[in-house]
Specification:
This protein is an alpha/beta fold. It folds into 3 domains: 5-153 and 383-409, 3-Layer(aba) Sandwich (Rossmann fold); 156-282 and 436-449, NadA-like (Rossmann fold); 290-364, NadA-like (Rossmann fold), CATH 3.40.50. It has helices at residues 44-52, 58-76, 90-98, 106-115, 128-136, 154-157, 161-175, 189-197, 208-217, 228-237, 251-256, 264-272, 290-298, 311-316, 323-332, 345-358, 388-400, 427-449; strands at residues 80-85, 102-104, 121-125, 143-146, 179-184, 201-203, 221-225, 245-247, 275-277, 302-305, 319-320, 338-342, 361-364, 414-415, 422-423. A 5-stranded parallel sheet has the order 6-5-7-9-8, sandwiched between helices. The chain has a 4-stranded parallel sheet with strand order 2-1-3-4, with helices on both faces. The chain is globular. The protein binds iron/sulfur cluster (SF4).
């Protein structure tokens, strides 16, 4: 039995297909409660109420949320938009859509400020780089708020601007304007701005092949930041030979490497390389192996993977693509179809639940029974820090006119993902980040939409 239609308070945006996720009465709303001291001070009263609820079932949680969320949505009307990423824990995906919000991949999320000039307040339940990309493309009268400022992306944290820029400077001294930066969406606004300054572009997993092909067509050496696996996969799709890739280290190790520190043979290889790959990765997507893929294929499953997985996994699979591609594969499947999906664990769990309603069996590729143990697939722990009390608190405080500045996302902010605090740039420096990062984002949009 599904919830009644009146639970959906607004229509879905026409450019974002609804996830199709339905709340059912006995479906648990929340997978794990956060400890009270994980909430910022202003949110603790809401968290205390939530933690005191007797269970996490919709029948209990939804009336508590409605008491706060509905007045906030009514107060702002069409001027507010709730957004979430597919990787959010199932409860937030379901709740955001229930309250008329939208669930999408990072490309679609980034487009919303430009597509919806009437919306002045965007409330995002996902990780910081996604909210910052929305803020970069926002008009001056549009504000972006994140429900939990401690939600960072570990891949983005391996490629902070203070790590990438010294390496870029070193490469630029050698290759000058022949060097072009392609920044994956999973980067800060500052790294996106670096891409913009070089005439480069942002990309997402849904358009990376198009963007890299565009960059290579200009005969440029592409500095691809930060995901080494996506870089390798896309290089393969763009017919770049493996020996035309140069692997730089990631994180602080990469920041400390220099061209002068390379051997003569390595320098010669760097000179020949068409792509230099920063050595970042996503721990969630690197648990998968070709053996996992083989296990499910032998049992009649179609195996689909995200291109942040290692290239050997992508090569072994039946298909690879973005979160939107993977979700569509589930919604397009016919009853009786069997899909094994390799990506973030909450996404696969949501796909499994929704597939079951359609008669489609969905499993996590990493869930290969071994020594009596299954369930190696994991969720994005940082994204899951957005839970019902965070959504309720920010909406209620926005309605009251007292939202914490901690949750306001401005381009160029440097976020401490442990404390949730942020350092802001002075307005004139922020304007430079916006100008350059926007160039890189708009170039991606132009390449993608043409
Ligand atoms: S799943 Fe990985 S890449 Fe995606 S937001 Fe989480 S840590 Fe970052």
């Amino acid at each position: 039995m599904t919830t009644t239609p009146e639970t959906h308070v607004r229509p879905t945006a026409p450019d974002i297909p609804g996830s199709g996720i339905e709340l059912v009465p006995d479906m648990p709303i929340c997978q794990t409660d956060l400890p009270l001291d994980w909430y910022q001070e202003e949110f603790k009263p809401y968290a205390e109420e939530y933690l005191a609820l007797p269970d996490r079932l919709p029948e209990t949680v939804l009336p508590w949320m409605d008491a706060y969320v509905r007045p906030a949505l009514a107060a702002f009307g069409d001027r507010i938009m709730l957004l979430a990423h597919y990787y959010m824990g199932g409860e937030i995906v379901k709740l955001v859509e229930r309250y008329g919000g939208h669930v999408a991949d990072s490309y679609q999320l980034a487009l919303q400020t430009q597509r919806r000039p009437e919306v002045k307040i965007f409330v995002e339940s996902a990780v910081h780089f996604m909210a910052e990309a929305i803020a970069i493309l926002a008009a001056p009268d549009q504000d972006v708020w994140i429900t939990n400022p401690k939600s960072g992306c570990t891949m983005e944290m391996m490629a902070k601007d203070h790590m990438v820029e010294p390496v870029f400077d070193d490469l630029y001294r050698r290759y000058g304007d022949d060097l072009l930066v392609v920044a994956y969406m999973n980067t800060s606004g500052r790294v996106k701005a670096l891409a913009g300054r070089t005439g480069g572009s942002v990309c997402t997993s849904s358009n990376a092949a198009k963007v890299v092909a565009w960059a290579l067509a200009q005969q440029k050496k592409v500095f691809f930041v930060p995901d080494r696996h996506l870089g390798e996969v896309v290089a393969g799709w763009c017919h770049v030979a493996p020996d035309a890739l140069f692997q730089w280290s990631g994180g602080l190790t990469g920041a400390a490497e220099t061209i002068a520190g390379l051997s003569a043979a390595e320098r010669a290889r760097l000179d020949r390389a068409q792509m230099v790959l920063w050595g970042g990765f996503c721990g969630v997507h690197t648990v998968f192996t070709p053996e996992h893929v083989q296990y499910w294929r032998e049992r009649g499953y179609r195996v689909l993977v995200h291109p942040e997985c290692p290239k050997v996994v992508v090569d072994a699979a039946d298909g690879a693509g973005s979160t939107s591609y993977l979700w569509k594969a589930m919604t397009d499947a016919k009853p009786g179809d069997k899909l094994a999906i390799a990506t973030e664990g909450h996404f696969v769990r949501n796909a499994r639940d929704q597939g079951a309603l359609r008669g489609v069996e969905v499993v996590n590729v990493a869930d290969v029974p071994r020594d009596g143990f299954a369930g190696m697939g994991c969720g994005c722990a940082t994204m899951s820090r957005n839970d019902p009390p965070h959504l309720v608190a920010i909406l209620d405080l926005l309605r009251k006119g007292t939202p914490p500045d901690l949750n306001r996302v401005l381009p160029g902010d440097v976020v401490n993902e442990i404390s949730g605090t942020r350092e802001r740039l002075p307005a004139e420096e922020r304007a430079v980040i916006v100008r350059d990062a926007r160039r890189a984002l708009e170039r991606m949009i132009a390449i993608t939409e043409r």
